[in-house]
Amino acid sequence: MRVLKITLTVAVAGLFIAVVTRTQQKEMSDAEYTKQALLAAPEAVAKDTHGCERNDADAAGFEK
Question: Which of 28, 26, 27, 52 is nearest to 38 (CA)?
């Protein structure tokens, strides 16, 4: 009984942490996303790039 109680407590705590961290992610603007992507790219790639494409879960081809 004690093991079951500890297991359930850990499971609920894990779910709570997962939900809280998921809701704290803020949406980046396109300009901020492009800036971060170009800063992460090698200089030779970033110097001639005028933009980048964002693929996320809402894009076509991704299953939720």
Answer: 52
Which ranges of the chain have pLDDT less than 50?
none
DSSP code per residue over the chain: -HHHHHHHHHHHHHHHHHHHHHHTPPPPPHHHHHHHHHHHS-HHHHTT--------TTSTT---
Structural contact between residues 15 and 26, judged by C-beta atoms closer than 8 angstroms: no
In this structure, are residues 49 and 41 in contact, taking their beta carbons and an 8 Å threshold? Answer: yes
Q: Are 54 and 28 in contact (CB under 8 A)?
A: no
pTM: 0.41
